[in-house]
Design goal:
2 copies of one chain form a homodimer.
Chain A (H helix, E strand, L loop, with lengths): L2 E6 L7 H16 L3 E6 L5 H12 L5 H25 L4 E4 L6 E3 L8 E4 L2 H8 L3 E5 L2 E4 L4 E3 L4 H12 L4 E6 L20 E3 H9 L7 H10 L3 E5 L7 E4 L12 E5 L2 E10 L4 H11 L7 E3 L6 E9 L3 H10 L1 H4 L4 E4 L2 E7 L9 H11 L6 E5 L2 E7 L3 H11 L5
Parallel strand pairs in A: 1-2, 1-9, 2-6, 3-6, 4-7, 9-11, 10-12
Antiparallel strand pairs in A: 4-5, 7-8, 11-12, 13-18, 14-16, 14-17, 15-16, 18-20, 19-20
Chain lengths: ~400, ~400
Amino acid sequence: MALVVQKYGGTSVGDAERIRAVAEHVARTVRGGDQVVVVVSAMGKSTDDLLRLADEVSSVKPKRELDMLLTAGERISMSLVSMALAGQGLKTASFTGSQAGIITDTDHTRAKILEMRPERIEEALRDGYTPVVAGFQGVSTDRDITTLGRGGSDVTAVALAAALKADVCEIYTDVTGVYSADPRVVPQARRLAKISFDEMMEMAATGGRVLMLRSVEFARRHGVPLHVRSSFTWEPGTWVVEEEVSMEEAVVSAVTDDTSEAKITVANVPDRPGLAARLFRELADKGINLDMIVQNTSEHGTTDISFTVEKGDAEAARLACEGVRELLEIGEITADLGIGRVTLVGAGMKSNAGITAKMFETLASHDINIEMISTSSIRISTIIRGERVVEAVRALHTAFGLDA
Amino acid sequence: MALVVQKYGGTSVGDAERIRAVAEHVARTVRGGDQVVVVVSAMGKSTDDLLRLADEVSSVKPKRELDMLLTAGERISMSLVSMALAGQGLKTASFTGSQAGIITDTDHTRAKILEMRPERIEEALRDGYTPVVAGFQGVSTDRDITTLGRGGSDVTAVALAAALKADVCEIYTDVTGVYSADPRVVPQARRLAKISFDEMMEMAATGGRVLMLRSVEFARRHGVPLHVRSSFTWEPGTWVVEEEVSMEEAVVSAVTDDTSEAKITVANVPDRPGLAARLFRELADKGINLDMIVQNTSEHGTTDISFTVEKGDAEAARLACEGVRELLEIGEITADLGIGRVTLVGAGMKSNAGITAKMFETLASHDINIEMISTSSIRISTIIRGERVVEAVRALHTAFGLDA
């Protein structure tokens, strides 16, 4: 008998019919002899509806009240799923984040979990119940209702799986797993049967849309195996697990793409210690997150620094740099919104030479110019023109033997 | 500086515009120097929408889960009202029934309040906040979410007013107060400036639709003055208060009507001790609530017993009586769905003779036959044909000098 945490996203519980289908699947799992803890997101677009109402009511929206409002969404879906499970003949009860013992800090709308006290869930399991838990929410040390931010329901599921020592955390979504590239970009993309936490994290960080970085990090830290699969086909999907020796056979696992960022270039930065740090402090103080950072080799006493930021932060980043331009004696500052990133991810890279060369050769054979490059032991990211991203991803997917 | 509990019903917070109007009124009250605790119902028809969703999802609906589902309604309205108050520049925070310390028994969908522990509300008031509390809900001694049943938001408001020792509990609704008769039946009906708890209870019990019996009882027991008024006109409405000497001047305060009941008549009940009790036990065991009960004077060893029940319970009541017909040696059992009740309510009745006579004379002059009669010290109820109710109410309203 295994203990399985099953998390269902918004589209998976989008209407009454979908909820009944979810309940049937949970009941099948339970009748198969496993224990299940269900974690649910709010139904479909209900969160958007609530936010629209809030906009109509007031332009001032305290974050504490936003959290109170949005958590109504999971309350509705979890009680409906629980009713549907009762309709399947299961003993069941739903629990809010607070009742499930998800204790967070007081940072409303993006709270972090401080502690898990899932005694009521454990008790329910002992008594033969199938508990249904609201994703995305917790209760703060100030006893206020909090939400966990984007991807928060996945975090709830992983945290519960870790605390309950579950055998697996199944993430049900509207895609059938993790692919070697975005299937909308590369029609020949293959579903990966297995991927390591490290690879999944690199994918999440470079444009993979299935899982948020945060929940994968959490799962890795607590050793919770993830199984990403579809609530529409119910077929086996992709396992995200600790790296195994056999994984090294595939040099490259996936190609990801991301056109959500802009590139800021600061020219002629004097090559003095502490100067770049001063510039980045300025950006951090404005709440701007930098992603890729590249500094050219210094020549005749100055250097160029380029970094990427979310497109929405580009103008703020440019202005922040302009603000210290005279002080730091730096040169021209440019913001380029026309870039795209293409990334190779693969655990096998670290022990395989020649990947970078092959990547460059492939892009060169398509006349695609590389503007920035950044690597980790299992990833190579390149910045190219945004309009060449689709072509680059397809070419690399073929060149590295990933086509189905 | 007064402490005012203001309760807003579903139509009062029915949409964003109404919520903003409520926030403006609360802000006016606060700027006028009073402290306000706001209690809200779910928005308009949102409870019906949630129930419809539940029907679509499952025919099995555990009451614990129904309570979890429905309480999402007040969570949405209270956070929106709180945001609108923040938009008015007030310090504000919303609280669930659980956070407001409303401790109930475990009788889901119709829980009773066992204890009030409103420490967080008191703390919020001390800190200059205007708290917004979810009506209709509490937390059980089993730490589960409960609802208080029909009229539950009024009960929340009255219970909070009592626990906080508020100066008044204002019940905002879509009518401008309590009237001497239903204005849809009697166009000349007058709004009552003041009415006693006892009269209000009799009105609630006999067809008055503004307040539920339960919240009036609660207010009387705890001496909480109620002020029933409109959230559409904001004009002063009706005060429900302890009886005062001056009230006795008006002999009759109001005429109520009710056509929601049926009359069951059991003929030829042997006049032996314990027999009627046996019959009523049978009905009670089936969960059927009896309202008016009348037993005719016994003649030649048998008696007729008539009682009224909700129309929906009429057939079940008839069958229950049939079930013990042979055992108890009783006669024919009939159910009459064509009745109506007309009631005079007035604290002055108890010290005024001749009210019954005048009531009978008035009905007789309209050729309206009285089928049953039942009285208390401040009420006279008569059962007549349902189709004569409107005529009877108008005639009595005029005869007792209530016309505006």
